[in-house]
Structures are given as C-alpha cells and as structure tokens.
Specification:
296 residues; 0% strand; mainly alpha
Length: 296
C-alpha cells in the first residue's frame, strides 16, 4: 500500500472514531464509506491491502449496527469474512467478525444462523495461539441463551457451564462476568425445575454482586429477586421474604429508570405476600410502587 493511501485511511479512521465518540453516527458512516471506498480501490493480493479493506468494512458494519441497519451490516461482515478466508494469522479478527455477524443474525431473528456464526467464532478463538478463552466463554454464553430460548435446556446447560468454567479459571468467582453466567445458569435450572441447583447458582451470583457492587445496584437487586424465587421452590419462605424485601428496597432507591424491574419484583413479592395471607402489606406495597411510578 502506498504511503498516501495509508495516510488518508489513517485520517479517515481517526475521523470515524471522533465522530462515533461524539455520537454523530450518520456523519461517522459517511467517513466510514469513504474509507471502504479508498481501501477497495487499492485492494490487491497483498495482505496489507486486504487487511486495510477488511478493517474498514468491520468499522462500517459496527456503525451500521449502531444505527440499526442490520442487513447492510450483515453484508459488510460477510464480505470481510470472505476476504480473510484461509488466513490463520487473522483468527482473532475472523472470530470477532463471526461473533458480530452472529449478533446481527440474532437481531434479525434468525437464531439458527446466529448459532452457526457463534460456533464458527468459537472455532477461530480456540484455534488461535494462544486460545482466546474469554472470547470462547462469551460465545458459549450467547449460545446458552439461544438454546434456552429454543427450549433445549440440556444444550443450554452445556454452553453455560462451559462459559462458567472458563470464567472461573481466568477471572475468579468474584467477577461480574462470572456472576452474570452464574445468574444465567440459575435461571436455566429454575426453568428446568432443578431447584437446589438454581438456589446455589443464584446464591453465588448474589454473593459476588454484593461484594462487587453493593446493595443498591440493579444487578444485586435482580439477584435478590432471583434468589427469592429459588428459595420459594426449596421451601425457605421466610428467607425468600427477606430477599424480596432487599430487591424491592434497592429498585425503589434506584428510581424511575428501573420501573420495569421494580414492577416485576413488586409483582413477585406481592403474590408471595398474598399466598402468606399478608393482604394488607401487599396492598401497601402496590400502592407505594404506583405512587413512585406516578400512576396514582
């Protein structure tokens, strides 16, 4: 690649980054279009020209995704992947492209295609030297969600456990990503009726999130709610009540921004209270939540 082209591409990429950081995605897209056009004009069999073209396509695809233009983003990712075919030296980028393409297919409501792309991403990350284990974990977590949504709880468990094993080994049990996958496993076990396993996973997630974020954090509050639901299934009703209370208190403190979460927790808690015969307290809580949300 000649020096003038390299200079122009560098300037265009810097402009793209500046515009994206400023939130001006439409103008950033114009700059990305210019970068793609220039790198395509100089495209040859030389790796440096291919790499420049692929990187420009990837940047434009990311902007298109942010703008919600999923079909053209899909096309850019596909073209970038085709350009890197047979390039063992670019497995990290190829894996990233497959991961992003999977996310696009997921957004286009094509779960089978999304799963295929995420499996390909895993292959790239595993074959990279050294293997990119944390990226493998992220893809396994995504696949776990897909399988759970499709009703294949056994396959979902395999993927979530794989992600959890990697995260435990590399990040430890008191990391937010580890806690997130523990939470996902807890929800899966709850759906499958494995009550003790659900309880333990949600307990692990809550312990980590309390230590990481404190009590008045949405993730901690959600873990309190999830653990309360699991505890009901194992018969620990008084303990479940305490966790419902903590979840409700936290979401009330977090305010209107978490209205949907607050309503969900209040619904769960009030249903529990009524099952315990505490009708008055359930009515008080519902009224309090309505007032907080401005629905009186």
């Amino acid at each position: 690649m000649d020096s003038s082209t390299a200079t122009l591409i560098g300037i265009l990429r810097e402009r793209v980054n500046t515009l994206r950081a400023a939130g001006d995605l439409e103008e950033a897209l114009h700059a990305a279009n210019a970068a793609v056009e220039r790198t395509q004009q100089t495209l040859s069999s030389e790796f440096d020209t291919i790499d420049a073209f692929v990187s420009s396509l990837e940047i434009r695809a990311e902007i298109l995704r942010e703008l919600g233009h999923l079909e053209p983003a899909r096309d850019d990712y596909r073209q970038a992947i085709d350009q890197l075919d047979g390039r063992p030296d670019r497995l990290d980028q190829l894996g990233r492209l497959y991961a992003s393409l999977g996310a696009v297919y997921d957004g286009l409501d094509s779960p089978e295609r999304a799963a295929q792309m995420w499996e390909k991403a895993i292959q790239c990350f595993e074959n990279h030297q050294p293997p990119l284990e944390l990226d493998v974990a992220a893809m396994a977590n995504n696949l776990g969600f897909l399988k759970k949504s499709a009703g294949d709880l056994g396959a979902a468990e395999v993927y979530f456990l794989r992600a959890l094993e990697i995260l435990h080994a590399h990040l430890g049990n008191k990391h937010e990503e580890t806690a997130a996958v523990s939470n996902n496993l807890g929800a899966l076990y709850h759906a499958a009726g494995f009550t003790e396993q659900a309880r333990e996973m949600h307990m692990m997630a809550l312990e980590a999130r309390r230590e990481l974020f404190g009590e008045n954090h949405p993730d901690t509050a959600q873990s309190h709610n999830n653990l309360a639901l699991a505890l009901l299934q194992t018969g620990d009703r008084s303990w479940a009540k305490r966790h419902f209370e903590k979840a409700l208190t936290a979401f009330e403190a977090l305010g209107i921004q978490y209205a949907e979460d607050l309503e969900a927790v209040a619904t769960n808690y009030c249903a529990f209270l009524r099952s315990e015969g505490e009708m008055y307290l359930a009515d008080v809580i519902e009224g309090r939540v309505r007032t907080l949300l401005g629905r009186e």
